[in-house]
Write a structure and sequence with these properties.
- With about 525 residues, this protein is α/β, with parallel strands linked by helices.
- A 5-stranded antiparallel beta sheet has the order 1-2-3-7-8, covered by helices on one side. A 5-stranded parallel beta sheet has the order 11-10-9-12-13.
- Helix 8 packs across helix 9 and helix 9 (about 275-285) packs parallel to helix 15 (about 360-390).
- The two termini are about 35 Å apart.
- It has 23 helices and 13 strands.
- The radius of gyration is 23 Å and the shape is globular.
């Protein structure tokens, strides 16, 4: 007998799976019961390779009673979190959150301080280790078994690229469009009511245009028009005939939310947009339980500006490129940290990725790093944890192995080249969007934190924490003071370094110490 111990997700191809696995979809009381039955039967049928047969988002832990075996699985992109820990007594603890693991007998809380050294560069927790000693993430596309006191892990899916030179740009755009057309109806049940985040950029706009039954969109906005995407979102919503609700975020709201966000995430994150996302989720959850979001296209189809430099970086990539963020160099950290280790380097997280991608072109290598590290460790991590903490369910239609399959076969010149990004994807979007939206320059969900953090009306908590004894445990006070002075008086671009340290201190004092 197979017992599903815990599961979070949404299986898109449930109809074909019910048919293939001889399950009657009408015999279940709801989606959760139906999907748990599918998962149990899929495990019995395909074992550790069951993830290759599932489309959608999922993280699960089950018990194979007959074999006295625990099995865990995470979807190919890691859109839901899953953690495990082996006690001193040789017992496996598993959970979809760190709190789930920590609540079980045998867990011993201890800080993994070496992660701080990586965090200061990456602004998120990348790779399988966490800030908690012994607590590991099951990585995307991986499975885990525990039997007779023995742990085994393996992967059933990895990003791979096999360029197909036989198709034209138009062919690729057609395939993207037809595949999204196929996937969108699978994302929710007809009776489910959903809204969608809308930034005004091509990804969310394309998604909303294709989701005909989405009538309401939601956006975040700011009083400072230099950072405010909401007018573009409202304009886009009007063109698509959809309602657009704007959540205006001020500095007071923003800073008040920081402790809540760190608690919800369970580990710190230095991505300033995460706080805005959390406020948006908290506001939306008052009246909605299901929301769409457009993540995935940038990493699949070449949407970031730095991808334009891929060929120039070339063979040097394995020496320095660790993904979307790289805000603090080793000499800076050595001067800041009380306990610096020469053997803890961010590039080490990408070593296996570069080994796996040795035969690929530079752009494909960069995107692989971002998918395996940044997308999982920052974007999907934040969405998964914030959704759980606010009672929202966020589904991402563009995150799908069938869409990535197109990207994996598409030559890089149709992704980013000659100063253009997401070339084929934008051409696909132009089938249902006006050109001014389909080819609109990416803004990147900006936040006015660079200005707010320097304002004495809002940065009192940051100053207090920087001067506290907990900060002195990890950082050299004189170096921390010098960094803060540099930001406030000389170089406001140093805000990312200040903000990343601040989020760590908030997490440590508000979340780690009390747990």
């Amino acid at each position: 007998m197979v017992q599903i111990l815990t599961y979070s997700g949404a299986i898109r191809n449930w109809k074909s799976l019910c048919s293939e696995l001889s399950l009657d979809p009408g015999s279940f009381s709801g989606r959760q019961e139906r999907e748990e039955a599918i998962l149990a039967r899929a495990y019995e049928t395909w074992g550790s390779q069951m993830g290759n047969h599932l489309y959608g988002s999922f993280a699960l832990i089950l018990k194979d009673e007959e074999k006295d075996l625990t099995f865990a699985l995470r979807d190919p992109f890691g859109t839901r979190t899953l953690y495990y820990y082996i006690t001193a007594g040789g017992k496996l603890l598993c959970g979809l959150s760190i709190a789930d693991v920590a609540a079980q007998p045998g867990f011993v809380k201890a800080l993994n301080e070496s992660i701080l050294q990586l965090y200061l560069t990456m602004t998120y927790v990348g790779g399988e280790d966490t800030f908690y000693q012994g607590v590991k993430k099951l990585m995307p596309g991986c499975w885990l078994t525990w039997q007779d006191g023995r742990l085994q892990t393996g992967s059933y899916w990895k990003t791979q690229y096999h360029p197909d030179e036989t198709k034209s740009l138009e062919d690729w755009a057609d395939e993207i469009h037809s595949t999204i057309e196929q996937i969108i109806p699978e994302v929710k049940e007809p009776e489910e009511k959903a809204i969608s985040f809308l930034s005004g950029g091509v990804d969310s706009s394309y998604m909303v245009a294709m989701a005909k039954d989405i009538s309401v969109t939601a956006s975040c906005g700011y009083a400072d028009e230099r950072f405010d995407e909401s007018p573009l979102a409202k304009e886009t919503a009007a063109l698509l005939g959809r309602q657009n609700d704007v959540c205006l975020i001020g500095p007071e709201d923003y800073f008040e939310a920081v402790p809540f966000v760190m608690k919800a995430l369970e580990q710190p994150i230095g991505d300033a947009s995460t706080i805005a996302l959390a406020i948006g989720c908290r506001e939306l959850s008052k009246n909605n339980k299901l929301c769409y979001s457009g993540e995935g296209a940038d990493e699949f189809f070449g949407g970031y500006r730095m991808y334009q430099n891929a060929e120039r970086y070339g063979a040097n990539l394995p020496d320095f490129y660790i993904g979307n963020t790289n805000i603090m160099k080793e000499d800076e950290k050595k001067a800041l940290l009380q306990h610096y280790r020469d053997d803890v380097l961010p590039i080490g997280l990408a070593t296996e990725i570069y080994r796996d991608t040795a035969d690929l072109d530079p752009l494909s290598r960069m995107m692989t790093v971002d998918i395996r590290l940044w997308l999982e460790g920052d974007i999907y991590f934040a969405i998964s944890r914030l959704a759980a903490s606010t009672g929202m369910e966020i589904r991402m239609p563009l995150t799908d192995v069938r869409i990535f399959d197109i990207a994996s076969r598409m030559p890089s010149r149709f992704k980013a080249a000659d100063g253009r990004d997401k070339i084929a994807f934008r051409m696909a979007a132009a089938k249902v969007l006006p050109d001014e939206i389909a080819f609109r320059k990416k803004m990147g969900f900006p936040v006015p934190i660079r200005l707010w953090l320097a304002d004495s009306r809002y940065n009192e908590d940051m100053r207090r924490r920087f001067a506290g004894e907990n900060a002195a445990r990890f950082f050299r006070p004189e170096a921390l003071e010098a960094l803060l002075k540099e930001y406030l008086e000389v170089n406001d671009q140093a805000w990312r370094k200040v903000w990343t340290i601040y989020t760590f201190l908030v997490w440590y004092e508000e979340v780690f110490l009390p747990l």
